[in-house]
Amino acid sequence: MKVLWLFAHPERRSLGGALRDEGLRALDDLGHDHRQSDLYAMGWNPVVSGADFGHDPAERLVVGEASRRAWESGRLSADVRAEQDKLAWADTLVVQFPLWWYGMPAILKGWFDRVFVKGFAYGVTDPARPGRSLRYGEGRLAGKRAMVVVTAGARESSLGPRGINGDIGELLFPLQHGTLWYTGMSVVAPLVVPGADRAGDADFAEYAARLRNRLRTLETEAPVAFRHQNRGDYDDDLVLRPHLAPGRRGLGVHRAE
């Protein structure tokens, strides 16, 4: 595998930092190539601006179209192009972060905002069906795999289907389905590390072993069975057809049974 490890934690000596180091060692031991984007260490700028696209500040900024033009003409800022080059090189993306306020740290959200520009990661149409977007299982990033590694302060039971914090699969839905799967990447089940603030040496050893095992099988692990947009499950208004998951609502209906 060629792995891009995308890491967003401000403290390299944290449990997350130790797991990142363990994961990179595991990839070396397994003979895989890897590159890394340690966003805090890089001082990554998470804020989208016209400067990303060489945009004339006297003109109104329409981010989608400005980003597409800049991507097509090679005018994206150097830091964005460098991250796109890493992702283009990789066949697998590992996204690691602590769960803060039910989502990603702002610096990581800003990486996706700036790097996943129109034309590169979305806004791709099917030449055989003009006007039909290639997304949710198709698109420019199809063929790549992705895995989320997330540390959380909450206990494991509270991140379950009836836990007060909500089911972790639904908390990660915007990233796993709405970002990674949307752009075409196949997404395997996340590795979730609960109780991270209270973890001791034995806990670290357990989760380091779990991470190594997941990386060992990452190439062959069956991905989450998210539904494809363009394979008949959705009607022309992109609504799930009534005979699928009948009587059910919510995010779970977008996973095939």
From TrEMBL:
Alphabetical list of Pfam families matching this protein: Flavodoxin_2
Q: Does the keyword Metal-binding apply?
A: no
Return the SUPFAM superfamilies for the record.
Flavoproteins
**Annotated keywords:** Oxidoreductase
Q: What Gene Ontology cellular-component terms does the record carry?
A: cytosol
Q: Which InterPro entries match?
A: Flavodoxin_fold, Flavoprotein-like_sf, NAD(P)H_dehydrogenase_qn
Does the keyword Calcium belong to this entry?
no
Q: Which GO terms describe its molecular function?
A: NAD(P)H dehydrogenase (quinone) activity
Q: Which domain of life is it from?
A: Bacteria
Which family is it part of? Answer: Belongs to the NAD(P)H dehydrogenase (quinone) family.
Name-wise, this protein is NAD(P)H-dependent oxidoreductase
Q: Organism, per UniProt? A: Thermobifida halotolerans
Q: What is the lineage of its organism?
A: Bacteria, Bacillati, Actinomycetota, Actinomycetes, Streptosporangiales
